[in-house]
Amino acid sequence: MLSSTCTAAVRGLSTTAQLSKINNVTVIGAGLMGSGIAQVSANAKLNVTVVDSNQSALDKAQKGITSSLQRVAKKKHADDAAAQTALVSSVLDRIKMSTNVSDSVKDADLVIEAIVENIDIKRKLFAEVEAAAKPTTLITTNTSSLRLADIGLNLKDKTRFGGLHFFNPVPMMKLLEVVRHNDTSDATFEQLIEYGKTVGKTTVACKDTPGFIVNRLLVPYMFEALRLYERGDASMPDIDVAMKLGAGYPMGPFELSDYVGLDTCKFIMDGWHKQYPDEVAFKPSPLLDSLVDAGKTGRKSGEGFYKYK
Ligand code: CAA
Ligand code: NAD
Predict the structure, then answer these.
(1) 215-301 — its CATH code?
(2) What are the backbone angles phi and psi of residue 168, rounded to the nearest 5°?
(3) pLDDT (tens digit per residue) in 225-259
(4) Distance of CA 100 to the CA centre of its chain
(5) Which ligand places an atom closest to the C-alpha of 219?
């Protein structure tokens, strides 16, 4: 085993020898998470490119980032409209939008994938990213639930691959889970922690286990609330009120599920259930399945457990 001084020296060496400073960040997926990750990265003065296969998702992201920045700017410069406008435009100026993955990752120092929670689609994307990116680019996923070892299975260089798990809404949530799998190098892991600090997040180190820390606890809790409701033990609004006022959570479990996206909740649970069929905490919910089948995916579609304007 290496002594701590010796380990630090080895780490220091590999960091400077292999990886460049992070200036250019490419975020792939312009949905709820990708737009927030782009915003906090640009706010930290990094150059950001956001990529999505769907132009309308990019248009929606542009609007979402603008209105989120306006909220931040209003708080920061309450009585100064000019300063608010300057803040919003200085951040927006650092964000480019594109539908072309290969072109957008060519100059990236860091790629953050935030597309749909589907292993085959993610693997296909990572093959394209690795083929087009520089040999020093850090390649990461914002997956909520999938194993990094599975997502990155076909990467040629797995040492530069890790997890950056942000929380929704990204501009407000202070945590970033930094995930390493067996092949993530120390240098990569340290640079991902450094990036987290740059974008103003508190980081925690996670291993490549289902749900890392937060979702391993939070998602089974959300599904337990569904089971409580499905058994007829309490109404949805009462469960939400109970957890807010009795447990101090900012949102009840149904409000939170709608906020996260019911499709994302379903993808997470279906994946775990397939992998661990005997684990009762990972049992899917018929009610959630029927809502997703009907296109009711929560706030983002206008309806989930509740209806939204
Ligand atoms: N951008 C910028 N500012 C925002 C914002 C956004 N997207 N959303 C909220 N805010 C700001 C508002 O401007 C407001 O600021 P002030 O109080 O200074 O005026 C503040 O946040 C509170 O907002 P609201 O009054 O609109 O509403 P709220 O008090 O209910 O707070 C919330 C909103 C921050 C989302 C809060 O309800 C909350 O923390 N909810 C829980 C969120 C959570 O648990 N997220 C984790 C989900 S799990 C996950 O992400 C992992 C996964 O893999 C699935
Ligand atoms: P979302 O549905 O809001 O957005 C996904 C975006 O990815 C869509 O705009 C879609 O057009 C795009 N996309 C799909 N396939 C693509 C491809 N091959 N190339 C380019 N773009 C593609 O999803 P989201 O909620 O932002 O979740 C994204 C990822 O982040 C998922 O892995 C999810 O598990 C994870 N995550 C979600 C939350 C949450 O609360 N929603 C929190 C943390 C992590």
Answers:
(1) 1.10.1040.10
(2) -100, 125
(3) 999 999 999 999 999 999 999 999 999 999 999 99
(4) 21
(5) 1
